[in-house]
Amino acid sequence: MKYLDKLRNSGLRPTKQRLQICEILFDTEKTFHFTINELDKKIKDKIDDKISLATIYNTVHAFEKKGYLKQIPINSNQIYFDTNVTGHHHFYDLKDGKLIDLENSDVGPINIKRKINGKKIKSIEVLVKLEE
Amino acid sequence: MKYLDKLRNSGLRPTKQRLQICEILFDTEKTFHFTINELDKKIKDKIDDKISLATIYNTVHAFEKKGYLKQIPINSNQIYFDTNVTGHHHFYDLKDGKLIDLENSDVGPINIKRKINGKKIKSIEVLVKLEE
DNA sequence: ACAGCTATTTAGAACCATTATAAAGTAGAG
DNA sequence: CTCTACTTTATAATGGTTCTAAATAGCTGT
Ligand SMILES: [Mn+2]
Ligand SMILES: [Mn+2]
Ligand SMILES: [Zn+2]
Ligand SMILES: [Zn+2]
């Protein structure tokens, strides 16, 4: 199994459900963005076993904690996740609610000049909203 | 009344509730960030009349539509609003969930090199997450 | 001032994404 | 194989936000 070690090495038991979700999330050429609802639909499409919604939530959160997924900061009634966990940015199309990756090279270096005492920077994310 | 014209000029009737909310939101030296829940508490503290939660939601959304407030893109179970509607950025302290303004001058110019066909850029917002 | 019209407020219900619960099932260690 | 901790699951609960529809209030024209 392709993802057995990935899971074992993170201290996550490689259950059938987790392995199937791994295939949907990580077996693709390109990375992608998704909501839980979209992932649930994709699972129903692509696999014949049923995976409960609770397990989908549990798994996505477990993967996020391990750094295999990240949330995208955006105002929406649903959480958007990203299978691209490298530092990068996003276009957000206000018309259709879709996200498009913006590579670091498309944005250029961002130099935060202000410091906050006792805190360090964990991430810098740019959201570029698009309209017609 | 200080906010009568502001409201009338936007096509919003200057009701007692809207005028009172204006005072809480816009009568301050500094701009600030808030959730609906925090605004509701502040209203209970500062004014003696009761304003229903539905009216608070209605008013905040009306003000946002008129450009007197904006939402801050961030992952949270609640929407964060900002009384600072100029283009600027934010630190987000993951420890306590608080936002701190980052002026454009603290970030430097951001040059988005990539274009999306048929779309134009409405806003560019940077979120800098802080950890210990 | 008054009538008539429309916008607004309101309490409460509904909505719905997410989280909690607790019982049944499963993986891995020994 | 057994034991235990972890995981899955159906289902309920939670909680922020939106909807509903009836009451109220601002505004325009007279
Ligand atoms: Mn199927
Ligand atoms: Mn009071
Ligand atoms: Zn992305
Ligand atoms: Zn701000």
Question: How is this structure best described in words?
Answer:
By secondary structure, the first copy, chain A, is of the alpha+beta class. Chain A folds into two domains: 77 residues, Winged helix-like DNA-binding domain superfamily/Winged helix DNA-binding domain (Arc Repressor Mutant, subunit A, Orthogonal Bundle); 45 residues, no CATH class. The first copy, chain A, contains five helices and six strands, in the order ααβααββββαβ. In chain A, strands 1-3-2 form a three-stranded antiparallel sheet. Chain A has a three-stranded mixed sheet with strand order 5-4-6. Chain A is globular and about 50 Å long. The N and C termini of chain A lie far apart (46 Å). The relative contact order of chain A is 0.14. Chains A and B meet through strand 4, helix 5 and strand 6 of A and strand 4, helix 5 and strand 6 of B. Strand 6 of chain A pairs antiparallel with strand 6 of chain B. Bound molecules: manganese (II) ion (2 copies) and zinc ion (2 copies). One manganese (II) ion binds next to loops of chain B. The first copy, chain A, binds a DNA duplex (30 and 30 nucleotides) through helix 2 and helix 4.
